[in-house]
Amino acid sequence: MVASNPLFRGTWTAKKFQATVINDIWPETLFFSLVATMVVLVSKETTHKLGVANGLLTVLGTVLGLVISFRTSSAYERYQDGRKMWTNIMIASRNLAQQIWIHIPSDRAGKGDTTVMQNIIEKKSMINLITAFSVSVKHFLRGERGVYYEDLYPLISFLPKHAEGASPDSEPLPLWHDDDDDEHHRAIDMPVTELGREVSRSSSDGTQQGEMGEKGGDPEKGLGPRGERRLRPARNPPVDTIYDYFPLLRLFKWIARSISKRARAKQTAAEKARNKRRKHQSEVLESHIPVEIVLVLSNYTAYCMRNGLMQPAIATGVTANLTMLQDTVSNLERILNTPLPFAYQAHLRMSLWLYLFFLPFQIYSAFGWLTIPGTAFASFLLLGFLEIGQEIENPFNYDLNDLDLDYFCQAIQREMHLITAHPAPDPRSFIFTNLNQPFAPVDMRTAQELTQGDGEYRFPLDGQAEAGVPSLRRTLLKGWKEVDNMTRT
After folding, report:
1. Are 183 and 199 part of one and the same domain?
2. CA 1 to chain centre
3. Cα 201 vs. chain centroid, distance in angstroms?
4. Considering the domain boundaries, does residue 38 fall inside one?
């Protein structure tokens, strides 16, 4: 399966070129093309011939090709591992929701003083936490700390905010550690920044401003009211700037930032100490929200087991799915926090630059004026593969080539609602009706007709042996033969 082409889907804009690597490699391609132009013009218009022997061209080109191929393959392997881990989350979430909704009884006569309505609300709330788990993993992988997001907070807002028996004025639990953080309240009143880049906010109708609005729908639709608290948007894709299209301008940005840092370095010692203390407190109070949600689900499992609401076999399956969720988060964290070593990337890029720089000198004698387009094509090809490996190395961000985490979370949300829409009726209420033909195509009678009379099964064409189970077995055997013949012809 090949990913759909974003260049020709929806309204066309120049921003869609970010699905390719053209914006990242065109300055380097232009530079090496200019080097090739210089080599050709000097050799053609002067008496100096810049062409050299190309003995190392084949050897170095082969080695660089293999190394770049390994770089791209290792990055794509991380991409595939990330997709597999999200598949595990979807499977475990689906299984866990089914076990809670079907196997934990809603009618608990003799096992407590709760009503059926209260029990259904209890189970639905736990299933909402399963949805919240996948959403929290999405924000965790994108480096978006806290729980105050439009697609996460409505799902977990009912959880306790303080330790048992503590007053509301006491220290909040780790899940709500930034509830009284002034920096958080300021963050929701201004554009959020990520690594110094300004990011967009959700518009009033739920659509996203910027190119990422075309990828995925509205992650917070169907979650109910947000309450009075002002929340961060569910998606914070980076806003496109001129630096994305003209990377060379980042040099001037770096110079300006260096100057501003020197100006800020003149702040008083008291301000430095206060900022250091605030930063240290923020680091200490950081909470692992997916683990916190799994802890609540584990506590609910223990509660059901203590009160005899869950059979041991089902409890084993629930525990296995919770363990699977935790293992998956650990593997996703491993992918996120284990980048390719910088020394390898730097050495590979410098080697490729040197190869492309000396390429025009080696091929001029054979190609002449064709050295210019040949060098441009070689630069575009090799630099493109190298940049692709770097882009998909972290598949959890907002790039058009990254995994669509919002879609995965929405799929889990839909499945959770599908599971809770199942009424879990008595099988006898729908099996023994005139719409069910269990023994077709051999016996076309309905289940209602088969159960009339004395209840003994009699196949109309069966003239041998007594009625009952032997006749039923012969019907099933005849059905197997007919179906096998019909499906093979």
Report:
1. yes
2. 18
3. 20
4. yes
E-assigned strands of 174-275? Answer: 193-194, 197-198
Compute how many other C-beta atoms are within 10 angstroms of the C-beta atom of residue 463.
Answer: 6
Indicate the burial class of 432 (C-beta count within 10 angstroms; 0-12, 13-18, 19 or more). middle
92 within some domain: no
Assess if residue 85 is contained within a domain. Answer: no
Give me the helices (H) in 113-268, please. Answer: 116-141, 153-156, 182-187, 242-245, 250-264
pTM for the model stands at 0.77
Tokens of 85: 């881990």
Strand partners, 238: 199
Q: Is 465 helix (H, G, I), strand (E, B) or coil?
A: coil
Nearest of 326, 323, 369, 287 to residue 37 by alpha carbon? 369
3-state secondary structure 394-425: CCCCCCCCCCCHHHHHHHHHHHHHHHHCCCCC
Q: Are 294 and 330 in contact (CB under 8 A)?
A: no
Tell whether 327 and 366 lie within a shared domain.
no
Q: In angstroms, how far is CA 18 from the centroid of its own chain?
A: 19
Are 303 and 384 found together in one domain? Answer: no
Choose among 342, 292, 335, 327: nearest CA to 132.
292
CB burial class (10 A; 0-12, 13-18, 19+) of residue 159?
middle
Task: For residues 382 and 441, state if they share a domain.
Answer: no
Say yes or no: 290 and 179 in one domain: yes
- Say if residue 198 is in the same domain as residue 331: yes
How many CB atoms sit inside 10 A of residue 316's CB? Answer: 11
Whether residues 349 and 434 share a domain: the answer is no
- The boundaries of the domain holding residue 461 are 429-488
Q: What is the pLDDT along the chain (489 residues), one digit of tens a residue?
A: 445 555 556 565 556 666 677 777 888 889 999 999 998 998 888 878 887 777 777 778 888 888 888 888 888 888 999 999 999 999 999 999 999 999 999 888 877 788 889 999 999 999 999 999 999 999 999 988 888 898 899 999 888 887 766 666 677 777 886 644 444 443 443 333 333 333 343 333 333 333 334 444 555 555 555 555 678 888 887 776 666 666 666 666 667 676 766 656 555 544 554 554 444 434 444 678 999 999 999 999 999 999 989 999 999 999 999 999 999 999 999 998 887 788 888 888 888 888 898 888 888 888 888 989 999 999 998 898 888 888 888 888 888 788 889 999 999 999 999 999 988 888 888 898 899 999 988 888 898 888 887 778 877 665 555 677 888 888 888 889 989 998 887
How remote is the C-alpha of 394 from its chain's centroid? 11
Q: How many domains does the chain fold into? A: 3
Both 219 and 365 in one domain: the answer is no
CB 43 within 8 A of CB 367: no
